[in-house]
Amino acid sequence: MRIHQYERVWLLASMVLIVGFIATITYGAVGLGITMVDDRGATIAPDEINEDERFGDPRVEQVGDDEYEVYAVAMTFAFQPDPIEIPADSEVTFYVTSRDVIHSFYVVGTNTNTMVIPGEISVVTVEFDEPGEYGLICTEYCGAAHHEMEGQLAVLEDEEFDLTELEVEAPDEVEPDGEIEITATVTNGQLEAIEETVTVELGDETLEESVTVEGDESESVTLTVDAADLGEGDHDWTASAGDLTESGTVSVVEGSEDDTEGGDDA
Amino acid sequence: MSNVARQEDPASVERIEHDEFDPVGTLALIAFYFAVLVLLWLFTYFVEFLGNVPTPVVVA
Ligand SMILES: [Cu+2]
After folding, report:
1. Most C-beta atoms within 10 A of its C-beta, which of A135, A137, B52, B60?
2. Closest to A103 measured CA to CA, from A119, A94, A116, A121
3. d(CA A103, ligand 1 centre) in Å
4. Is the pLDDT score of A119 beyond 70?
5. Is B30 within a domain?
6. Does any domain span residue B8?
7. Does residue A263 carry a pLDDT above 80?
8. What is the pLDDT of residues B15-53, one digit of tens each?
9. Model-level pTM?
């Protein structure tokens, strides 16, 4: 077969091009470790999501040093949790599943993008080097309000990120001869122990206590005040730990019927 | 429908060898297409794709 010299050049060049394509993708996969979203995540029945240990409570969890897992749920027409807060410079694995129809989980402007299929758990591991705010959208048409399906992904500076929660238990109403007990509980969702100064204020009474909360543990601080010292009427309380604050009002009233939410054991 | 060359004056028809055919213009055009293709690929992969960090990676 007689092949013209120029055609030989062209054939060779096309071969080089194909080899080049394969080489770049191999470099991406082997050299950079880039992966496609596959079916390595397990399956889950969409109607059992609420009972699931992970997706029943969509959240961010620390699983190791600089390693976090996000359990997220997509549904018509929202993402849970929203916003999702993760630290920068950490390995974050998103586990995403759907309650209803096919959605997607696309962190706008990045390659962090996966379909979210009911029954399947999509697993995506990424590391954000820079803190920033990202939009989260659904790119699979999923219904009438598909265009409104969005969420927020906040990548925070390592020092700013925590999984600390403050919960306060306080009575709504107390008898004038009773005691008001306000309990502030600090929960540390991270693995490393944290130091927090917990402040509980009620009327003129202030309780300030430094607590050390071990990883995955919680610590409580209780302020007890005699209702008689405050007198009848409404009294505001505030509890804070770090930059978290909770506040409320307790009423000292004669003949109150419901002594709800603890503090009634006086 | 008939061949155009046949209608021409036989004296003006030049016969050349297979390898003597030398379409430099076509070669230049194809070389240009090729260069464009390579640049587009480099841009698509290294700038558009790898530039949109983070990209899902395999965890060891
Ligand atoms: Cu959707």
Report:
1. A137
2. A116
3. 4
4. yes
5. yes
6. no
7. no
8. 888 888 888 999 999 999 999 999 999 999 999 999 998
9. 0.81
Q: How far apart are CA A54 and CA B26, in angstroms?
A: 62
> In this structure, which amino acid lies at residue B35?
A
pLDDT at A266: 40
Task: State the average pLDDT over residues A157-182.
Answer: 90
Domain total in chain B:
1
Q: In which domain, by residue range, is B30 found?
A: 23-48
Residue B59 placed within a domain? no
Partner A contacted by B56 (CB < 8 A): yes
Helix (H) or strand (E) holding A227: helix A227-230
State the distance from the centre of ligand 1 to the C-alpha of A106, rounded, in angstroms: 10
Specify the pLDDT at position A27.
96
Say if B28 falls within a structural domain: yes
The pLDDT-based confidence of A126 (bands split at 50, 70, 90) is very high
Nearest to B27 among A6, A93, A129 (CB): A6
**A35 in Cβ contact with A122 (< 8 Å):** no
Q: How far, in Å, CA of A92 to CA of B56, rounded?
A: 10
B43 touches chain A (CB under 8 A): no
Residue with tokens 């405050």: A230
pLDDT at A176 over 80: yes
Q: Which residue of B has its CA nearest to A94?
A: B56
Q: Which residue of A has its CA nearest to B24?
A: A6
Q: Mean pLDDT in chain A?
A: 91
Using a CB-CB cut-off of 8 Å, the residues of chain A touching B59 are 91, 93, 125
Task: Say what the pLDDT of residue A18 is.
Answer: 96
Which residue from B minimizes the CA distance to A89?
Answer: B54
With CA atoms as reference, report the closest residue to B51 among A109, A32, A30, A33.
Answer: A109
Contact B57 A35 (CB under 8 A): yes
